[in-house]
Design goal:
180 residues; globular; three-stranded antiparallel beta sheet; five-stranded mixed beta sheet; 33% strand; alpha/beta; Nucleoside Triphosphate Pyrophosphohydrolase
């Protein structure tokens, strides 16, 4: 498993959002899903409340008492409707989020699923997913650049989400033999 530590400066609003957590299910950890598609692409998605033209890797929180493997299977089903098992635990990103009011640790487990050509459809409509796109390694890198370029209320979100996109693109390039 690849371990990576990153420090990210975020705005106060995003820091408070992450620090607030999600009640009793908050474990300060998530799974980020690499879902292989045909032609060496990876599934990405967008949600109704995301800024226009922003796609991201599917991700979701790990519940209290749940392993990251269990969270992966549950979250894949919720966000894509697909029945996909784990092919490989790629790595973990240890985030240290900071802003003038403090610091917060958060872990992202990067998990590769089994390859699927099935059409995704969200099972959990509360996710507000409005579109999917299969992305190449280069497109995943471009998504990370777009994320880091977000401003205003999206600044912290963009900086945080860009780290998993960069991690995924680097891993995929290396594993598929496209290292630059």
């Amino acid at each position: 498993m690849i371990l990576k530590s990153v420090a990210i400066e975020v705005d106060d609003d995003y820091f408070e959002y992450m620090a607030r957590g999600k009640g009793e299910d908050d474990t300060r950890s998530e799974v980020v899903m690499l879902l292989p598609r045909p032609d060496d692409k990876i599934l990405t998605l967008t949600k109704s409340f995301y800024p226009e033209h922003i796609f991201n890797l599917p991700s979701g929180g790990i519940r209290t008492g749940e392993s990251y493997e269990q969270a992966f299977v549950r979250e894949v089903a919720e966000e894509t409707g697909l029945d996909i098992g784990i092919a490989l635990t790629v790595g973990r990103i240890e985030h240290l989020l900071s802003c003038p009011s403090g610091e917060l640790s958060f872990a992202s487990y990067i998990i590769m699923g089994a390859k699927s050509a099935q059409t995704p459809c969200p099972f959990d409509l509360k996710e507000q997913i409005i579109g999917y796109r299969d992305a190449s390694i280069e497109e995943i890198r471009e998504l990370a650049v777009k994320m880091r370029g977000l401003k205003g209320k999206w600044l912290g979100f963009g900086r945080f989400r860009a780290t998993a996109l960069d991690f995924a693109a680097d891993y995929l390039a290396k594993s598929l033999g496209f290292e630059q």
